[in-house]
Amino acid sequence: MTQPQNGATTLVNTLVDHGVDICFANPGTSEMHFLAALDNPRMRSVLCLFEGVATGAADGWYRMKETPASTLLHLGPGLANGLANIHNAKRASSGMVNIVGEHSISHLKYNPPLSSDIEGLARPLSHWVRRADSADTIAWDTTQAVQVASEHPGKISTLILPGDVSWRAVETPIVPPARDAARKAPLQARIDHIARVLKSGEPAMIILANRATRGRALDLAGRVARATGARLGSQFFTARIERGAGRTPIERIPYAVAQATAFLEGFQHLITVETVEPVAFFSYPDKPSLMKKEGTSVHALAEADEDSELAFEMLLDALGVSADAPQMIQPALETVPPTGPLNPISIAHALAVAIPENAIVVDESLTTGRESMGLTMGAAPHDLINNMGGSIGYSTPVATGAALACPDRPVICMVGDGSAMYTIQSLWTQAREGLNITTIIFANNSYAILKAEYANMGAGTPGPQAMAMIDIGNPRIDWLAMAKSMGVPSQPVETAEDFTRALADAVRQPGPKLIEVRL
């Protein structure tokens, strides 16, 4: 006679039945029955040595697969450790199902040391939170968690799993009905209004985000731009952009407020697609928060939860333009391998030469990348992933999840040395899983981005104690030893020639690698 399933096995089977077939896990005692349930041939389990790596990897998985992954986190402190990258995932509209272990219901009344308000921790960064209270209803809870995470835009679901719900037998399982997950269509009246705006000939920029920056939606956006003279742009940070030679080019609105306001000065209209108008990342004394010029009109072509591909089809129809009209094509860069010292420009040229076709580039290079990445638009076709939420330490976990989602594609992760220290444990998971990731550490031995922000804030001349707080060169971090300790081959580079050669070699070889760019 078949033994009944318990809550944990039912939860795992329900996840897989709904397409969630990977779990990024950092388990503890209260999750042992769930851990046992992960021994399921339909579910891939990936061990992460820090919860921020698990949640960041789930973000990277979604950005490439557009289906949610699950995480396993240990009680409230484990969830708290993962919250920074849950924040980044939420800002990137990535779907994620977090399973958070909890003490058994009968044990909680004694207030054991690891007790905490898990709901209170989860709710600010989750779209859906539920505490499971019965093994019989765990399939219902799990199904709803996946349905919410799978909506457009993607959402964060957090399911709290008490130990006794996990180990109890399921007697009368309850499953909710399926629900329609179709994306919303934009209003025709709004489309017609924007068609009139574009026909007016007044300068306009169409600002793309989320699903509009790739696939057919991006192709159609290029046709609209070619037909109307509008320019295509994106926020400085975007969840994922398909870019490179042969693709529709998107101009990146600058990060710095002064540069962004100057960039947007010439536009009478900003047309947003799955995003909002550009807002400064921080507030600065005597600088605006909104970066458009006074009098510029903002129009939404497609809201965040609407179908941008359909919106562009409707817009082309309203404009009287065929969907087969010519689109804008980004030409290939005519570059030669750079020579001489390493600086943002030579680094950009090296990247343009060495990025292989179909690569995934995850960028958290901050100071270096702000000057570099705009010069790589005409490199071989690739995907570029940015940090939408601004919480540091996103890139190495996101690269890990992206590589697992797309094992046939090389991944390049660019990160500053200060940022890399937040989630360097990712290297261990990359080595354990044999992932084809090349991590580039830009080592300037300081929080260089904060030196620039100190000046931008008008905080005066920094004294020695202030400067010591943004100096990480004493002692100097040994990146080669760090990588070796986690099973990742590494090498340093100090010239543009060495960097170009090292990157070209690394992306052709299987498994993880690390390149320390010494600046």
UniProtKB/TrEMBL annotation:
GO terms for molecular function: acetolactate synthase activity; flavin adenine dinucleotide binding; thiamine pyrophosphate binding. It is an enzyme of class 2 (transferase). Keywords: Thiamine pyrophosphate, Transferase. Residues 383-517 form the Thiamine pyrophosphate enzyme TPP-binding domain. Residues 6-109 form the Thiamine pyrophosphate enzyme N-terminal TPP-binding domain. It comes from the Bacteria. InterPro entries: THDP-binding, Thiamin_PyroP_enz_TPP-bd_dom, TPP_enz, TPP_enzyme_TPP-bd. One of its GO terms (biological process) is small molecule metabolic process. Belongs to the TPP enzyme family. This is Acetolactate synthase-1/2/3 large subunit. The lineage of its organism: Bacteria, Pseudomonadati, Pseudomonadota, Alphaproteobacteria, Sphingomonadales.
